[in-house]
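Design request, tokens follow.
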């Protein structure tokens, strides 16, 4: 792997966006599955743009879902840009200028929802002003064939860097508090994203990996290796796993937590299996409920927790109550 990462220790210490939350309450609560919540609002996401389609057709619904997650107790909400790329939107007939506006509008929607939530005095009781993360999905999300669950798209780090570069810089300049790199399936793609982070003065990002088992990311690289790689970089706000079955989380923590110098992130799916052919999730969950298991994961060392596919605002509300006593920041009910 060719990526060259400047050691974080060579830079002046700056406070991570997560630090105020960790200092006050010991944990950061993320939101849950945006697509799941959008589908619950009646949106049909059977589209190559997936949840990003709603940005084009029903932006008001996106704002409503952000507000639902904030009301549930999320300290950080992610934009609906996981599957929004210049290439994907060009297939829908959008020009580059129109695609750039869509990306910026996604950040604006999330920021406006956060600001409207925070403008209500009752929402500030026992809370810290929530963050907005600009979601960056992997190359496999653009392919819309489930390959983010394998990483088997055969591209070099340079090619992946070029794929992500323009979208990255548009989102980084759009007003979010940080970047959220999600469901990364390979060490090569992580290297490309770390290069882009290094090009973003003052910016912060998390990198969260999709895993094939309890010790390896989707392409077979040991999770400990990619966590070590990310932990050497400047301005990595967190590193961890997402869209993994809850039953794997304990073994993933055992495999990689000791290599993390940034807060370790865990936001699993519901435990159901995704069929990339039918583009549907199987019925029934496998393993623990994420909201019920979150306290155990926190006790083991994870400090940034939330949900991914097939989890919704109810999961996040129950998770916050379990970890912090509903709205409180001290571990006791507010």
């Amino acid at each position: 792997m060719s990526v060259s990462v400047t050691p974080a220790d060579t830079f002046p210490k700056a406070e991570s966006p997560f630090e105020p939350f960790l200092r006050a309450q010991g944990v950061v609560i993320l939101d849950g599955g945006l697509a799941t919540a959008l589908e619950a609002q009646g949106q049909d996401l059977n589209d190559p743009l997936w949840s990003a389609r709603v940005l084009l057709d029903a932006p008001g619904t996106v704002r409503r879902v952000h507000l639902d997650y904030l009301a549930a107790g999320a300290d950080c909400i992610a934009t609906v840009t996981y599957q929004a790329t210049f290439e994907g939107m060009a297939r829908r007939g959008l020009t580059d200028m129109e695609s750039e506006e869509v990306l910026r509008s996604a950040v604006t929607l999330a920021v406006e929802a956060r600001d409207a939530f925070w403008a209500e005095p009752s929402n500030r009781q026992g809370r810290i002003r929530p963050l907005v993360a600009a979601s960056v999905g992997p190359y496999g999300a653009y392919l819309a064939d489930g390959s983010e669950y394998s990483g088997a798209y055969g591209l070099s780090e340079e090619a992946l860097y070029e794929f992500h570069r323009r979208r990255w810089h548009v989102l980084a300049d759009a007003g979010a508090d940080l970047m959220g790199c999600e469901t990364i399936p390979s060490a090569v793609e992580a290297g490309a994203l770390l290069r882009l982070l290094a090009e973003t003065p003052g910016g912060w990002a998390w990198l969260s990996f999709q895993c094939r088992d309890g010790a390896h990311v989707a392409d077979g690289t040991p999770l400990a290796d990619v966590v070590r790689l990310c932990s050497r970089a400047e301005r990595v706000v967190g590193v961890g796993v997402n869209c993994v079955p809850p039953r794997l989380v304990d073994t993933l923590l055992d495999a990689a937590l000791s290599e993390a110098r940034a807060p370790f992130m865990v936001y699993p799916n519901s435990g159901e299996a995704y069929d990339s052919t039918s583009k549907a999730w199987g019925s029934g969950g496998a393993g623990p409920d994420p909201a019920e298991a979150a306290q155990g994961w926190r006790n083991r060392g994870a400090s940034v927790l939330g949900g991914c596919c097939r989890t919704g605002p109810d999961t996040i509300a129950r998770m916050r109550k379990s970890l912090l006593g509903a709205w409180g920041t001290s571990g006791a009910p507010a």
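Comment from the thread starter after seeing the answer: thanks! Confidence is low (pLDDT under 50) at residues 1-12, 328-334.
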